[in-house]
Amino acid sequence: MKRWQMIIGLLIVLPAAVQAQLAVQELKCEQLKSPVGIDVLQPRLSWQLKSDQKNVTQTAYQIWVASSKALLDAGRPDLWNSGKVASDQSVLVNYKGRLLITNGNCFWKVQVFSNKNDSAWSNTDQWSMGLLHPGDWKAKWIGYDEASPWDSVTQWSRLSARYFRKGFSVQQKIKTAVLHIAGLGLYECYLNGKRIGDQVLAPVSTDYRKSVLYNSFDVSGALNGGKNAIGVVLGNGRFFTMRQNYKLKKINTFGYPKLLLQLDITYTDGSSEQLLSDDTWKFTADGPIRTNNEYDGEEYDATKAFPGWTTASFDDSKWSGPQLVAAPEGTLRTQLTPGMRVMDSIRAKKISHLRDSVFILDLGQNFAGWLRMKVKGMRGQKVTLRFAESLQPDGSLYTANLRDARVTDIYTLKGGDEEQWQPSFVYHGFRYVEITGYPGTPSLDDFTGMLVYDQMATNGKLETSNATLNQVLKNAWWSIASNYKGMPVDCPQRNERQPWLGDRTQGALGESYLFNNATLYAKWLDDIRESQTEEGAIPDVAPAFWNYYSDNVTWPAAYILVADMLYQQYGDRQSVVKHYPSMKKWMDYMQRKYMKGELITKDKYGDWCVPPESLELIRSKDPLRNTDGTLMATAYYYHLLQTMKRFAALAGRSGDIAGYDRLATRIKTAFNKTFLKNGDHYDNNTVTANLLPLYFGMVPEDRIAKVGARLIQKLRQNGLHISTGVIGTQWLMRGLTKYGFQDAAFTLATNTTYPGWGYMVGQGATTIWELWNGNTANPQMNSQNHVMLLGDLITWSFESLAGIKPVAEEPGFKQIVVNPIFVRGLDTLKATYQSPYGCIKSSWKRNANNVAWQLEIPANSTAIITLADAVLNEIDAPINGAATLRRGELEFKLGSGVYNMKLALHNKE
């Protein structure tokens, strides 16, 4: 028996960027659970090696791809036989076979050869192609481009769902049947009475003027011989924007919901047939979903439901025909990110009788999704559900921080037997639910919270002996999950829910240690690129649902730094290559428009959300707390120039590097001339003012120690509490650790007094707040489920405390630099991270100055171990080569495997 095996996976990307992972699936009805079908002509393939041996490295691979499983099993890979390729690459290997065709199936496996003289074939995996050419679409867009008499189009729009159906016959034996659907804004699709897939709130949002995403499904096993019927219900989503005829210069609108559907059927005799959306379908808007609005909620009237409407026996003679409507402006593309699912359920914890027929339900956890309800009563009775994150002192909902979002679902009973209901086209951010009009006395068993976010694995976990840090990281997980909605949004509860760039500039990196977020952020880079103006400007929000083009540096920097995250964490070079021209266009635009005297002078938001001098304030008005905008914009621009130098090399644009270098040199000189004061601090000596030039390498070498001393002095004056806003906090924990203040960083991470992450925990928070004083600030801006203040806390926890970090020259954790810090006050740590090459584990236990450390490195990876404050006394295996001392650090290499080490710390007590 082989002592090692492989796990394979398929990473599908556009030749330059987007990825999507497909699990192994059979061509059965089970495949309806996930969209299939891609429009990528050169997908990328990945696999992982598993081994119980040490120092396992792949030496070669051979990939087979066939158009059927039978051909693959017979050893006849008619699409691609790579031959034996001498390479250790096992992540993002480009397909180089025959040209792929529309609706084609691709079955593949890989044989891997190792340095242990082992080789093995993997299991078989499969992917399917979508519609590869515009001419492959034969269907027509249908809809109803007006409001019904019972609707209203206002600031608080009420627009009922649209229902479409079509009966058809199948008279031959089916070989394959592939359904392609673009339902805007959101859709649910049913075939012969059964829901197609388990995706929700699909498709994911885009700027519909630029891109329209469609999903594809293999429905071969869902069709009947003889009569069939298909039904689609459309919700509003971001397409029919929630706030119509309101702030027209701010909010972009796209039109009424519309549908494009094509079912391609191939029979066993080789003939084919298509079912296409057109004006022969049947339509009504007078159905049970009376309104659906992401901000305001969904109303469902079960007395108006039409049972069996997606089956062939339904009588649709009273329905009218749809309108043929204009296609949206955007280009049709396959949705390559899996999209949203109900990822978990949450059992209610407490229910209280507030007054009369009003009850308050407590789920025990703030999250984003909806409530599933069981109810039994008389026909026409209404149950009203209203949502909030917290309660007022009298036990009623606190909704002032939701602004004008009405966040109310209403269900009208059909009467009779027990009914179950949950909304289809809205989500809420909430912990508490006000229940009004429920027949009888509601119980906990009548309600379940449904957690909704983009389908992705939780790929990292970190637990320590410090309960506060553990809870902060748990709260971070819930906030991140809550705000993955086909794009990374800022909050899930109030009338905003926008994909702000500034929230994710470094936040995306930390998130990647908890979630496998590669496809979500690759898609988001496309959103950002599509929102760029001809002149080069990038908005604060992308997709550009709001017309906010403030021309900051610190917010649009996310475009470049998120691409860097995808490269470093996942080895995704193509995202860099694809977006490099647009990134350079923006850099040139900012220099051309806002550089004065070698400084970038444009900044709007400052160090957003610095802890204010008064607990009621949203933003500080104290100039001694706030950092100069030109300082921050210029420092960020300098840092982005360094990143663009690396990107230029990756993109084959090495000729750009010299220009970046010259500009960076000029900026650095002007920056220090303007802002370095007394040779030991920058500008007004805020933590952020000193931290940015330190971390970005702008401080003259002979002044680094002095600026670092002023930085820590300032923090100590604040009692080692947070004194940075969104910008400073993005680099704070790593900056402190880099310059030897790791114990101070740990104190900042675990402080339970204001301001800090631990303070939120001490106040009962189960997610991360928008403000450090989120429990006392003006309700105009105190979301209790945000991510922007996480800064680099998660990144620091994994990279510094656990010591798990990719090597820049070998991205995607092909090579890992492992350098844990064993801070005072922390006795144990256990971290796991699922990298593209496999699971990395780092666990240590400290007893006084002795540390027992276990490290696991996945096959086909290596690790560089650096120990700055410890001596290696014992290891249970030989190391690769001799250990060396470099700049006072012990350094050695380890191949894959599990290692147990004993260390002695020095200079720690």
Automatic annotation (TrEMBL):
InterPro entries: 6-hairpin_glycosidase_sf, 6hp_glycosidase-like_sf, Alpha_rhamnosid, Bac_rhamnosid6H, Bac_rhamnosid_C, Bac_rhamnosid_N, Ig-like_fold, Rhamnosid_concanavalin. Residues 173-343 form the Bacterial alpha-L-rhamnosidase N-terminal domain. Keywords: Hydrolase, Signal. GO terms for molecular function: hydrolase activity. Residues 353-453 form the Alpha-L-rhamnosidase concanavalin-like domain. It catalyses: Hydrolysis of terminal non-reducing alpha-L-rhamnose residues in alpha-L-rhamnosides. Residues 1-20 form the signal peptide. Residues 459-800 form the Alpha-L-rhamnosidase six-hairpin glycosidase domain. Its EC number is 3.2.1.40. Residues 803-873 form the Alpha-L-rhamnosidase C-terminal domain. This is alpha-L-rhamnosidase. It comes from Niabella pedocola.
